[in-house]
Amino acid sequence: MDDLQQYVETVGKTARAASQKLATLSGATKIAALQRIAAGIRARRQQLIDANAKDISAAQKAELAPALIERLKLNDKRIESMAIGVEQIAQQVDPVGQTIEGYVRPNGLRIEKRRVPLGVVLFFYESRPNVTSDAAALCIKSGNAVILRGGKEAFESNRAITRIIHEALTGVTALAGMSPVQLIESTDRALVPKLLKLDKYIDVAIPRGGESLIRAVVQDATMPVLKHFTGNCHIYIDRSAGSMQEQVRNVCVNAKTSYPGGAVCNAVEHILFHKDVAAELLPKVCKDLADKKVEVRGDERSLKYFPAAKAATADDWGTEYLAFIVGVKVVDSLDDAIAHINEFGSHHTDAILATDTTAIDQFVASVDSASVMVNASTRFADGGEYGLGAEIGISTDKLHARGPMGAADLTTYKWVVTGDGHTR
Amino acid sequence: MDDLQQYVETVGKTARAASQKLATLSGATKIAALQRIAAGIRARRQQLIDANAKDISAAQKAELAPALIERLKLNDKRIESMAIGVEQIAQQVDPVGQTIEGYVRPNGLRIEKRRVPLGVVLFFYESRPNVTSDAAALCIKSGNAVILRGGKEAFESNRAITRIIHEALTGVTALAGMSPVQLIESTDRALVPKLLKLDKYIDVAIPRGGESLIRAVVQDATMPVLKHFTGNCHIYIDRSAGSMQEQVRNVCVNAKTSYPGGAVCNAVEHILFHKDVAAELLPKVCKDLADKKVEVRGDERSLKYFPAAKAATADDWGTEYLAFIVGVKVVDSLDDAIAHINEFGSHHTDAILATDTTAIDQFVASVDSASVMVNASTRFADGGEYGLGAEIGISTDKLHARGPMGAADLTTYKWVVTGDGHTR
Lengths: 424, 424
Hints:
The structure is a homodimer.
Chain A: H1 3-23, H2 27-43, H3 45-61, H4 66-72, H5 76-91, E1 99-104, E2 110-117, E3 120-124, H6 130-141, E4 145-149, H7 155-170, E5 181-183, H8 191-195, E6 204-209, H9 211-220, E7 228-229, E8 233-237, H10 245-257, E9 268-274, H11 275-291, E10 295-298, H12 300-305, E11 310-311, E12 325-331, H13 334-344, E13 349-353, H14 357-366, E14 371-376, E15 393-395, E16 403-405, E17 411-422
Parallel strand pairs in A: 3-4, 3-6, 4-5, 6-7, 8-9, 8-13, 9-12, 10-11, 10-12, 13-14
Antiparallel strand pairs in A: 1-2, 2-17, 15-16
Helix pairs in contact in A: 2-5, 2-7, 3-7, 5-6, 10-11
């Protein structure tokens, strides 16, 4: 067995052992552990900023895009909100042990569907360092051990955060000698396929990031995978939206520009205008966006209404820009809008702006997306905004969990069936 | 593109088109469609028996095990229960459109988690022909199109059932020109890997059957897989079970022998006796089983209490016999029983017989199985017995659905978020 194989085997076994301990940990112990982590993050603020500075300087040397460097950066405010994030997860209702359903059958058998942890989670992610503390906290809350593999650009920051977590957990007696949170402290790519073969120890792999990462994970994984693609999100402006001009303009600007650099999966990438309202609304929405330094790319009909736009190419419609770029297009009907979204979208989050309830119902029923927004910005697709607390990510899969995933989505259930000597 | 590839592409596209129609079908239309299928099964009884006779005669020529031939057989009673099964599925509450959760956020956004069909299900299964009508009915009820790949030993029976379904659905106007239920009418094994690459059209693959089938599916599938392994189920008889001798004997006999030939996944395969009750209970339970023609294989200590047993080998503990064979073993403690079950079991269904509530709680919390039975036969692990109606199978996976899977487990959800121009 080579060294890398030895290493991943040890990581897997360590996680499995910790998961067995975590599964039966009391809620109070988990809360105490998370509070210790939050306190550690605050106490080690300077250490975090120093480690992060190394990542930032490496990123600048590597000439990463400014928006990506911005995402990477830790400052006092962001560190405080990491700590608050962990505290909020601590205070959530404990999902473990919940009875999802419970009833007595006619023969007297009591049937109970009881929530239990998944076991061991293998989590791949990129850039933002706060994801490290969020993911660790969510996994602890839901009774899972986690193996973290962060992006190499946040390597030093992730290492510093994980050290704080280890230090905090050392003080938890029930976890003595256990490592519920492990960071892969190597950027060697050869580790990834080896990790993905550890279905003996790992219950689920969650890749959150770019398409190439996710394809690699899906191809190699022998355990189930929950994919977190970034989103190619749409807003469709219905023919019935003429009377809500103000809201249309606000929602479009918010959906595109409210996150710095537009570099977030729930930002809108393409806006579809029904032909009956395009003359009125398209130029205003596009001008609002252009005023915010968004590059507008339009189809042929859009260019007539907003000549300042660049001509979109066929490749634009399937593209997730993750930048201040938006594609606009005029459609002939609601059906055409739905067909476009189902063909080119990534089934993440898509919105309709409309007053016609029939159009709204049809859009909601027919758009095959994890989140369908009605008269609201796509930016609301988020675990916090949905009231789940922090999220481990936004699943673009249909099985197990779809859309924002909170602590409860990191659990499964077991059936507990109680009789008094029942035979069938 | 070769002929087989062409064929599977057509099957995939046809299923995808049907699924889009099925997703918005009214509950009444689905009920009517299922009732037509039930009526068709009754009307074509003789046709089914004739087709089944061909399978039975082929199975006899191929010298299949008598228990397998018994499972394959259709008679008046079994055909009537197929029809009743479809009618019961028709009468279930429609899972599609259900609001799983719904609430209003402080900012006034209404958040709703709404149940929707998965889309297209690819289902692999073996032997029993009633699985064909159950699976088709469950998929229609839950708004999914299904591609069926049954075992070759039931080929003629499955073909006859599917023809009845097609005939019945021809009368449903809303499904005109659609094929929601397709049977792969070829036993060519080369089709399987090709089907498993159709993630463009198929949302989930569900293999239900032997280990080699499931391994092949997991290895080749590019879509998510829900595995339905057969079960290596255990009963653990605790030291506190001495006062419930009658129940212990009944449950053990029931769990092993109530299904013909023991050829069912929820039959018990191994019984563990706590050392403190082994002298009293082991000989009685083993004699009861031997009287029912069950072959008993015991570890060294068991042989002392029941010398008529064969000596078990190390291979026995991981074996799912699916036959009238049982392995018995004496364990030193509850912990040893739990460790044995978690190591050798298949995480399907495991039971404890005990009066001590502390032991029961520990067993329930620590045994990592889809169903944990307390003082009840393992044979209850079944969708019908849990009140789910018919089941598509019993999932041994942890993600999405665990244990018996009914119609609701063939759905996912979408988040529907409604505002009045909300921005973030």
